[in-house]
Amino acid sequence: MNKPQRDITLRFLAEPHDVNFGGKVHGGAVMKWIDLAAYACAAGWSGRYCVTAYAGGIRFIAPIHVGSLVEVEAKVIYTGTSSMHIALEVNACDPKSLNRRLTTHCIVIMVAVDQNGQSERVPEWVPETEEDKQQHESARKLMEMRKHIGEEMQIFVE
Length: 158
Description:
Layout: E1 7-13, H1 27-46, E2 49-60, E3 69-79, E4 83-93, E5 101-113, H2 130-157
Antiparallel strand pairs: 1-3, 2-5, 3-4, 4-5
């Protein structure tokens, strides 16, 4: 059996239809790219169809301009029984200079599901390098923080 693919990078040019009225790529387009990369990463790891369960900590750091070369990097940093925590970075640059700069980063949780929408088991990811271990531990801490945030958010959903 082939080893699951832990990471993926999508590369493309930011197009005019991605731009808002201010002349920069709008956040919704960036979020769509993040979701696409998270799906491709999770499907590559699990070998299954996956759905987005959570997207959080989205931080827009710098704008992306039309014509920029965009790279959306996604990698598995934690696995549960059926879920995969995916860390994502969006970088952009002028394709003539290739001086990449971080524009956005976040965490997305994807869940592997069967044809009936029921969750399915995914392969366990075991951190190997020191960086992997730090990211894995960060994912565990974020899980705890999300529990508290979820409790606080209940006032808005009742």
